[in-house]
Specification:
The protein is of the alpha/beta class. The protein folds into 2 domains: about 240 residues, Alpha-Beta Barrel (TIM Barrel), CATH 3.20.20; about 120 residues, Lyase, Ornithine Decarboxylase, Chain A, domain 1. About 30% of the residues lie in helices and about 25% in strands. The structure holds pyridoxal-5'-phosphate.
């Protein structure tokens, strides 16, 4: 996607607008597949929560991906996008037994992450194959909010509770066909990942009828030039050879699974916003754009740094700006960053806007959620219309018959 394409999209569909590059998604998918091409079977289940537009799911389906889902609604979305139930894994946490059963009835692979539901589900449905989510207690990355394998995490069943898992499996006669971990986003260190994998292999030995081992995700992607990223090729080489060795020991060719979200879609996305006001204060210059954390919350929620460029004036002289939004709340996208000189009306592009951006958007301040566009075959395809007043009012019940002047004054 070139600047001129992005500007044309902002013009045609208006700002703010999310744009996703299908080619980038495809090349990331192929990069990961290639890195693990030596294992007996590989299954890449795209994590729907990263970006859940139905057309993006269709694209994933056409690439041969499966889906990783965390709610029954994501399961339904996947089915609506044409996925077979058998290509969907359901990895929720803290859901009810009823929700698990509903998903199992649809035929998706169930992944259970607590002993209570394992026992209840196994007692009622001993013949439904179940995957178990393990917490290996390995800390990946540095941000406690996105590290989900450590000791205080609510995710997974602790490796120290394996004896209890085994007892439940024995008593219920249930069938465990997969072992899973997901240690959280932003794995910096391949060695940490391999270390966690050894714990998973050790766990797997306890189960005789496995079909797959799912290593979750957490691949780090670069947010700016020269940024560190997971070396997928090196991880592929090391983990594949270890996995193949494990399959030989285990006596069966298993499927190696991953559930990449960010890796597949983060870099493919750009968020285009328009500068409403350039505001000089005593200490800085603010560029105020027609968005805020209602549309992209990652900078405020996680301290994420999304690189910003001025695509209306790319050759302009760099100046320092703080880029903020227009909602009534502190909604800072960037502080004191260099951007080519900004004039009111310019379009700014925020990078890495594919993962956890639109999918976390809200209607705070009663603003509409932005449009979404998929760039495919050198063409812009609108895949979500910008919201309207009708959308904002949908499901609201207006008590106008109750609050008439007469009725209220008669009280
Ligand atoms: C969110 C999630 C993922 C995807 O993580 P990324 O960092 O986006 O790759 C994978 N597996 C599970 C269980 C998740 O909850």
């Amino acid at each position: 996607m070139k600047n001129k394409d992005l500007l044309a999209i902002a013009k045609e569909f208006g700002a703010p607008v999310y744009v996703y590059d299908a080619d980038k998604i495809k090349s990331q998918y192929e990069r990961l597949s290639t890195a693990f091409s030596n294992v007996p079977q590989l299954k890449l289940n795209y994590a729907v929560k990263a970006l859940s537009n139905i057309s993006v799911l269709r694209l994933m389906n056409s690439l041969g991906a499966g889906l990783d889902t965390v709610s029954i609604q994501e399961v339904e979305l996947g089915l609506a996008a044409g996925f077979n139930a058998s290509d969907i894994i359901f990895t929720p946490n803290g859901v009810s037994l009823e929700e698990l059963e509903e998903a199992a009835l649809l035929g998706v692979q169930i992944n259970i992450d607590n002993l209570s539901l394992l026992e209840q589900f196994g007692s009622k449905h001993p013949n439904t194959p179940v995957c178990i989510r393990i917490n290996p207690h390995v800390m990946a990355g540095g941000n406690a909010n996105i590290s989900v394998g450590h000791i205080d995490s609510k995710f997974g069943i602790s490796i120290h509770q394996i004896p209890h898992i085994l007892r439940i499996v024995e008593l219920t006669g249930m069938n465990i066909n997969g072992i899973h971990m997901h240690t959280g986003s932003d794995i910096l260190d391949i060695d940490v990942f391999l270390y966690a994998s050894e714990i998973l292999f050790d766990t797997a030995k306890n189960f005789k009828d496995l079909d797959f081992i799912d290593f979750g995700s957490g691949f780090k992607v670069p947010y700016k030039e020269g940024d560190i990223e997971t070396n997928i090729e090196e991880l592929g080489k090391k983990l594949s050879s270890r996995f193949n060795e494990f399959c030989r020991e285990y006596g069966k060719d298993l499927t190696l699974g991953f559930e990449p979200g960010k890796f597949l879609v983060s870099e493919a996305g750009k968020f285009l916003v328009k500068v409403n006001v350039v505001k000089q204060t005593t200490s800085t210059v603010f560029a105020q754009v027609d968005s805020g954390f209602n549309h992209l919350i990652r900078p405020m929620l996680y301290g994420a740094k999304h690189h910003i460029s001025n695509i209306s004036n790319p050759k302009g002289k760099d100046r320092f700006y703080s880029v903020v939004g227009y909602i009534c709340e502190t909604d800072t996208f960037a502080t004191n960053v260099k951007i080519a000189e900004i004039t009111e009306g310019d379009i700014l592009a925020l990078d890495n806007a594919g993962a956890y951006c639109f999918s976390m958007a809200s209607n705070y301040n009663s603003r509409f959620k932005p449009a979404e566009v998929l760039w495919y075959n050198d063409q812009a395809h609108l895949i979500r219309e910008r919201e309207s007043m009708e959308d904002l009012l949908r499901n609201q019940i207006d008590l106008k018959g109750v609050f008439t002047n007469e009725a209220v004054n008669a009280q």
